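Hey,
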Amino acid sequence: MAVLNNLEWTTLHNLQVGIPVLLALGLAAYGGWLVQSDFSPERIRRIALWSLAGAVLLGSFAAWEMYTHLLEGDPFVETLHEPLLGMAEGATVGGVVGYYDARRKNQYLEAEQARQAISVSMDGIAILNEDGEYEVVNQAHADVYGYDDPNAFIGDTWHLCYPEEEAARVEEEVIPELYEKGNWRGELTGQRRDGSTFPQEITLSVRPTGGLVCIVRDITERKEQEDRLRSLHGITREFLTVDTSDEITTEMISAADRMLGYPLTAVWKYDDKADLLVPWEAAEPARRFAERAGLDGLPPLESESVEMEIFHDDEAVLVEDYQMLERSQVPDIPLGTVLFVPLGNHGLVAIGSPEPEAIDATDRFLAEILVSNATAAMDRLEREQELANREQRLRTVVENVPVILFTINQDWEITLQVGKGLDQVGVDQNQMVGATVADTFGDSPVITDAIGRSLDGEPVDVTVDLWGRTYQVWYQPIKDDGEVTNVIGVAMDVTERQKREQGIRALHDATREMMQETDRETICQIAVDTAENALGLPISAVWLQAEDHRRLDPVASSNQAENLFDELPVFEPEESISWQVYEEGEPRVYDDVRDEDDRFNPETEMRSELIVPIGKYGVLNSGSTETGQFEETDVVLAQLLAANTRSALERAERETALQHQTDQMEFFNSILRHDVLNGMTVIRSRAEFLMEELDGDQLQDAETIVDWSNDIVTIIQRVRTVLETLTGTGDPQLEPVALSSVLRSEVDRVRTTYPEVAFDTEIPNSVTVQANELLGEVLGNVITNAVDHNDTDGLRVSVSVDSYDEREDFVTVRVADNGRGVPDDIKETIFRREETGHAKSTGSGFGLFFVDSMVTEYGGDVWVEDNVPQGAEFIIELPRP
């Protein structure tokens, strides 16, 4: 330590220690740079090994030199720098050598990869020297120019590959620009070995070491496709100039042949009503091809064919071999490849070839574009036609329908006012244009509010009274870039419609009131009151046919009619217009009845007159002391009033007749209840007395009298029940009844009566319904009706009960036959009382009216339907207990 402390450090000593330290720091920085560089980890490891080897080698020599100096007596500290410096220098030299070794290997690998890329490239690649001579050429480059061996180019110049004119252009235009910018890309015309030329896309780059890199590609197919696309665009422009779909179809077929080279092209049009593709147009070669195949022209394509399926799917389908296609419409035609392309909703296009797999992807692409453009053109024609039709309809509406069309701008000014509706109110076309809404309609808050809302962007629909009329007005805002610029409106005169609607509501009320009455005069008075107060027919009256059918008597009149006439006339045959209307059954309208020679009173004060028949009952007359007072709405409402009056009179007539029948039935019931039943009681009592006194045959006779008396009493009681049910005076006294046994009993009874009729039954056991002792009579009527109204030869009657479920509220009984059935127009009326003669009755003798009445009393329902395949089916729903 003393030696060390006393050691004199000189500048030499500092350099001897500092240089190894600096080299070590440099190596550390060099290592960090290598990690950040693009060298792979394997290359960095090789550089590190080179550096380590250099440090070991030079460090060993330095250590030997240090050992020598120590033997010579030099101090250890003064000789320590020698191995440090040796190792640092060795590591540095090794690192540099390793770097160049790794770089050389990378360059070799890159060059090898480049050579492989050039050799396998689909593009033609060549490397030329500074004199324009080929040094490296790949196989693709040789193929482009029609050579088999790439070495054929080596040593020759690029002029070999171009015609003289093109080579001159390259010398004059391309090469100067290439050396100015360092690269050039464009299209040239190349020349093959056989002298043919072709379009090529070429990329040229200047090599850093001199010479050129050339990449060339044959673009013949691309140019052909571009030419076809240009033709396609031209055809599309032609599509836009034609006026009919037929012209588009013809041009499309011609283009398929001219542009794609496929003459076997045909088009089918879709018939949506028949769901059929019908032949539309075809190329002449396609027609001849079909004829050679034995077809009489192009066939229609039916809904079950695969072609129709392709059309409905709206997706193009390429069939490589039509002969292998299942469900094809014409399987025997010798077609190979067929491309089916739907023509939107217009039809289907077929482009075919006799050879399989003849249509490539490019042709398919172009064909689909062609058909797509044709479809768009046809859609355009349809839209234009629809627009033209819409404009024509709008023009027709504006010119002929009583509407008013107007527009209003943001300043609330009227900018348009047209329409036939203005003529009705005496306003000229565009008379109010330039005026503001406030100046013209300021006193109508409904109008101003509607316009304000519409100018704010809201569609508005209002009803407004204006100029003595009622209008329904639609306001629609018109926007430009999201801003409302003006409002377009349509006003329709709905005065008559509103009057008609109000009249119809009044007629409904009057009809309900009339239907509650049975007195003829009361019904007619309601009618004239309705005409006066609700329909705007203040002078009205009704005449009805007298009992002798030889005159029409006045039975009701309005207040104004009574004030105008002291006494209404009686109309007799051949003496008046009213009698003519009554006989003919057609209404008449007179703007001025004084012009008619057949009027009843030549001095009449009536001018306008409306006469409407009330069916077989009479006429309704309405009049006015002014001429031309009745419009179409008045006629319609008057006819409705007359029809409702006729219905009320018919109902009253029916009710009177039914009441008369009810009275007769009640009278008959009283006879049964008192006279007949009392008489049978006396007979039975006497017979019972005789039974105690007689024996032998006389006793049997007395017993027979008693049995028949009991049977007759039972029948009388049933008839009483029926009569009370039909007249509504009795209590049906419903109770649970065993449907199964009753129904089987009735079937057996009818089967015994008609052995020639076949009966099928499906009746489950233990089915109970809510009814009474007349249930058998009800079911027996229906079953017997099925036999009586059909020929028994081959007749089959089915009686069944639907699957029974205790959770259901009703049980359904069905009686069906295979007879002639029941016409639709009487399926409901056969159950009415006045139709009882339609069905031959049994039992109680009241037929299907009795059936309907009793089932209704039970709380059920009965109706008739068509049986399948023929006959009628009566369906009876009976409530469960």
